[in-house]
Amino acid sequence: MKSEAIKDYYVINGQIDTTENAEIFEKIEKPPIYEVIRVIDGVPLFLEDHLNRMFDSANIIGYNIDRDEQEIRKDIKSLILKNNIDKLNIKLLSTEIEGKGKVFLVYNIDSFYPPEEYYKNGIHTILFHYERNNPNAKVLFTSFKEEVSKALKEKNAFEALLVNKLGNIPEGSRSNMFFVKDDKVYTAKASEVLIGITRKHIFDVCNKLNIRIVEESIHIEDLKKLDGGFMSGTSVNVLPISTIDDIPLDSINNKIIKEINNGYVREVENYILKHKNEWV
User: What was the pLDDT predicted at 142?
Assistant: First the structure.
């Protein structure tokens, strides 16, 4: 794979190196296990959840990550301080390279955060027929990523809603999906999707607000009956959907979606305030 590392430095197996010396990326052939963590005000958001998911992904596919949680935390702090990061995503990547053995990389990546107009107007999405073989493991498959990127570019869309062979929509290509009908929020069962960190905290927010979540995938034939929908993810938070192909959704005016978004923003602010002193 090509090097994704930006800024001046990255970390390999606990050692700081310069991104000018990043030939190691070219040697990665096996699909790696990875996590992308958002840094806000110098704090890696919901870090504990990300690390738990990364180790869970490894267990699912029978892979052992050599570095423990404390070592990874140290790697992340070294990178944040060395690259002087205040707001940017960090990627953790673990894989095995022929002739070198296991490697654990920590580095900054190009990060896109939707502008305010996306939240005010909603986003355009498309349907994309695809089914993950192992939805609970966060493993990078380059061919899938390239196919989706091509489809999004051709149709000028922000995200692709994955449609399985039964016609259900369990998730997005890089996000979890939520749909609103009347006073309920629908999203796929945990066993059918990669359990997003933002998804987990949205469940917490809904519980606090007494908003009922039904863990059930929406069928493509029911899209026109919805009152709204939104995607969630590390870099997008709660992002309302205005269209799915040619189907309009009035998500930006939906009361439930607004309440969930406001509640999630509060969760983020509280986490940063609580953990700020750990990262200075």
Answer: 63
